[in-house]
Amino acid sequence: MELIGMLDSPYVRRVAICLKLLGVEFEHRAVSVFRDFERFKTLNPVVKAPTLVLADDQILMDSSLILEYAAGLVPAGQALLPAHGPARLRALQLTGLALAACEKTVQIVYEQQQRPQEKQHQPWLDRVQGQLLAAYAELEKLLAQTAAIPQVMGSAEVSMAVAWSFTQLMLPERITAQAHPVLAAFSAQAERHPAFISTPQV
């Protein structure tokens, strides 16, 4: 199978790292939805990253759906998401917040980089910025409730670290490590994991 998309996308990087943790073999093809639009269109007419192309040329889109499919390819004991109970609920909460942080970071970047400055809508940017701050504040609060930085590397942990690194790459002045020390420390530790090192975002 082939994973299509650039690793500077948090969604593509999230999938790539989780596939490695699952032990699912894949080939990564760095095709940009911007610079390589027409080429991407030949692989997936919707031009959405990440795209997973299966051996029979069927395609899957959306990072969460791709990871759900990948989980079905490995034994249950290798799952990156707890199967039930409070641990599953917490992982889903953390994942939801991390994906919200990714989404709001992308919205701000697109507004500032893809829309002409005279057409940018500041009230909209202020609203999205507030949502971004809220997502990271909730992640920091949830992580701070535990006695130690999480050591298990599941899909929720990958999602948090990837989201943090993406926002730090794109909007470092808006979300600071000083205001989120637990999350920053956790993400720094995660980035030292072999699956992260072998999947750099830039």
From TrEMBL:
BP term (GO), one: glutathione metabolic process
What's the superkingdom here? Bacteria
Q: Which Gene3D superfamilies match?
A: 1.20.1050.10, Glutaredoxin
All copies of the GST N-terminal domain together span 1-78
Could you tell me the keywords of this UniProt record?
Answer: Transferase
Q: Which InterPro entries does the UniProt entry name for this protein?
A: Glutathione-S-Trfase_C_sf, Glutathione_S-Trfase_N, Thioredoxin-like_sf
* Name assigned to this protein: Glutathione S-transferase
Q: Which organism is it from?
A: Serratia plymuthica
